[in-house]
# Entry
Amino acid sequence: MELVPIEDGTLASALAAAPASTKRTVLSVKGGVLVSQDGAVMRYRKKCRRCRFTDVELTTMPIRAGVTSMNFYCSKCGEHQQVEIRTGDWAGP
# Structure
């Protein structure tokens, strides 16, 4: 097996042709509180709909297109719930 060097021009043109990632925004969070988002990653805290307890842990996840559901167990009241996150494409300036 022999290694062949890649020309800089070939690599640069391949990177330029790659599509740019789409920035997304969180539209709503049911069963949670949005803390921050940057177009690619979101941070939120889970919140119980029954007793209003807010989880102390910060959950971080990539912003995916559409609706994402996560399970949540409230340690205060013992209720099993879902966190529902709705996203859309970023409408920048």
User: Anything to note?
Assistant: The longest helix spans residues 8-17. The radius of gyration is 20 Å. The CA atoms of residues 80 and 89 lie 30 Å apart. The chain is about 10% helix and 45% strand.
